[in-house]
Amino acid sequence: MDDLLKRLLLENNELNAKLNSRRHFLKECTLGLGGIALGSLLNSCANDQKRAYDYSANRALNPMAPLSPPFSPKVKSVIYLHMVGAPSQLELFDYKPELAKLHNKPCPESLIEGKEFAFIEGVPNMLGPQATFSREGESGNWLSNHLPHFKNVIDEVTFLKAVHTDQFNHGPAQLLMYTGSPRFGRPSLGSWITYGLGSENNNLPGFVVLTSGGTPDAGKSLWGNGFLPSIYQGVHCRSKGDPVLYLKDPKGVSRDLKKKIIESINEINYKEYTKFKDPEILTRISQYEMAYRMQVSVPEVMDINNEPDYIKEMYGVKPGKESFANNCLLARKMVEKGVRFVQLYDWGWDSHGASESEALSKGFLNKCRDMDRPVSALLLDLKQRGLLDETLVVWGGEFGRTPMWENRAGIQNSLIGRDHQGEAFTMWMAGGGLKKGHVHGKTDEIGFRGIDGRVSVHDIQATILHLLGFDHEQFTYDFQGRPFRLTDVEGNVIREILA
Fold first, then answer.
1. Does 174 share its domain with 208?
2. Nearest 10 degrees: CA dihedral of 163, 214, 233, 473?
3. Does residue 289 form part of some domain?
4. Is the residue at 90 inside a domain?
5. Is residue 293 part of a domain?
6. Which domain-ending residue is among 233, 263, 279?
7. 204 lies in the same domain as 325
8. Residue 298 lies inside a defined structural domain of this protein
9. Same domain, residue pair 312 and 438
């Protein structure tokens, strides 16, 4: 045990030595043009630290301390359900009977002239809706027959029917949706929120990520901290096996020994912090302590076996397997325990029709079945526990799908599928501060572009921040000499959907 302690302390001292050598180099480089440039860089870094740790006095030693937002919030936590690959709005929520009349007829060239697509070449044929629709709930909103369970919660949601994006490839579109930029390097939505609000549970991360089916195209940058201190990055948990890798101690290492090891390491780290005031040292201290507390809390909150049978049946969970249903139930358990932001990514919604696993006639139907029951159960479960009024649930993809039949290399696919579409797609929200059963926005007769109530990705982000108590234009972080914000230089709160 003494050898283990010595090894960990040695590794920590080596890390601090590297930091010190870098700081020594920076301190010595003060002459010439290089020194002037370096001085400017150091000043911007100092501003970064001041912005992050003057945000609240009680964050001096606890960067995840809970904070009150500047304005009265409507909700205190978010569950974001992202359907990776972009589901077809034309087979789910955006009913277009006129499109059915045009099925398999050539697309007017004027409709696609000057437009860029991922795979469509030349003049494709139109593709009518591959679903039947009915009006459901007291709101009478249109719903596809692919989502039979969703009719039970349709009056709880607010639809956004004319969302648009300028990105039509998965990775950049996903980055734009979550970081406000189609390029790498910016903080994710969950990181911004935990930076601004902290966490109400000291034993669990403030920002948790759950995936099913695979990793999104843009990778872990979708829950990265960007230029924010790394304490605010998302923690990727697994719904199968150990929730977090390396959470368990090696054989022979008792909890008391682990506590002594962490106390010894953090004592060294704290001395380094008092000397250099580097916020990443605080992150290291916090993460060591969080990891220690998570060893007890995470296995408990990630255990769905202790849920009542009727709850497991309602969600359609599959114990021992990774599934979107399991993750929806876990999301409810986490917000119930005070986790601030829970992000679910469900991979497999890229309905090109290039294979049966993608085709609207098979793969897409399987995804609908996998998604319909757990999403409906999540909203019902939150509502019956009194949590929906204080939780914002967001559902959507990174873009939508075309009303045209995809024709790779100018040849119509034998299977039925749609290409990427950024002009218009559907998202929905549910929870506190929103009009229930409301529809905002409208697309044209074939669902190709928004003609009323168009909203952008930055508008979505601004509205989420507003519901959490932030003015998206004022919620900034200084980096490289200027203030950055999630919504970049755009975005407006979608006030038409607010209750």
1. yes
2. -10
3. no
4. yes
5. no
6. 279
7. yes
8. no
9. yes
Chain length of the chain: 499
Is the domain of 406 the same as that of 444? yes
Q: What is the CATH number of the domain that holds 386?
A: 3.40.720.10
- Tally of structural domains, the chain: 2
Helix pair 457-467, 189-197: axis angle to 10 deg: 20
**Where does residue 37 rank: exposed (0-12), middle (13-18), buried (19+ CB within 10 A)?**
exposed
Kindly give the pairing relationship between strand 341-347 and strand 77-84. Answer: parallel
The domain of 126 spans 77-243+308-497
82 and 212 share one domain: yes
90 phi and psi angles, rounded to 5 deg:
-75, -15
Specify the pTM. 0.85
Whether 177 and 211 map to the same domain: the answer is: yes
Q: Locate 232 and state its tokens.
A: 């605010």
Q: Which has the closest alpha carbon to 494: 457, 465, 455, 438?
A: 455
- Burial tier of 352 (Cβ tally within 10 Å: 0-12, 13-18, 19+): buried
Q: What is the DSSP string of 81-137?
A: EEEET---GGGTT---HHHHHTTTSBPPHHHHTT---SSB-S-PBB---SS-EEEET
421 membership: H or E segment, kind and range: strand 418-421
Could you tell me if 266 and 408 lie in one domain? no
Whether residue 124 is found in the same domain as residue 96: yes
> Could you tell me the two tokens for 187?
């903080």
| DSSP 8-class letter at 434 | B
Q: What is the pLDDT along the chain (499 residues), one digit of tens a residue?
A: 445 445 545 555 554 554 444 444 333 333 333 333 333 333 333 344 333 333 444 566 688 889 999 999 999 999 999 999 999 999 999 999 999 999 999 999 999 999 989 999 999 999 999 999 999 999 999 999 999 999 999 999 999 999 999 999 999 999 999 999 999 999 999 999 999 999 988 889 999 999 999 999 999 999 999 999 999 999 998 766 666 666 667 777 777 777 788 788 888 888 888 888 887 887 778 777 777 677 777 778 888 988 999 999 999 998 778 899 999 999 999 999 999 999 999 999 999 998 999 999 999 999 999 999 999 999 999 999 999 999 999 999 999 999 999 999 889 988 999 999 999 999 999 999 999 999 999 999 999 999 999 999 999 999 999 999 999 999 999 999 999 999 999 999 999 999 9
